[in-house]
Amino acid sequence: MLQPRASRVALRVAATVTLQDAHTRPAHTHDLTAGGIRLQLADALPLAQLCAIRFAVQCAGQLQQVLAMGQVVYCDTRDDGHYSAGIKFIELDRASAATVAALLLHAA
User: Fold this and answer.
1) Which of 13, 39, 56, 105 would be 27's cystine partner, CB 3.0–4.6 Å?
2) What is this structure's pTM?
3) CA 22, CA 16: separation in Å to the nearest integer?
4) How far, in Å, CA of 53 to CA of 86, rounded?
């Protein structure tokens, strides 16, 4: 039986990815689900790499910071030479989870 696709919302904001070796890489978000986020980056991310993702969004009239721990599940080369990476959320603090839920609800 096919599983329904997770609710997905386009999200285009600046983000940072901090890898386990403490190197930080700039990124831009592409889209967001309750389970993860797709990022656009200039450099590839290693598969299965654990990382922290941070970005800020306008939600409920305020700028909300989102901080998530995640794991790289794919990283593909795009036609423009940049990379598209899928990060599965492993942990979100309560405020970040509420912001993600509000963004998805608003988009539905």
Assistant:
1) 39
2) 0.89
3) 12
4) 12
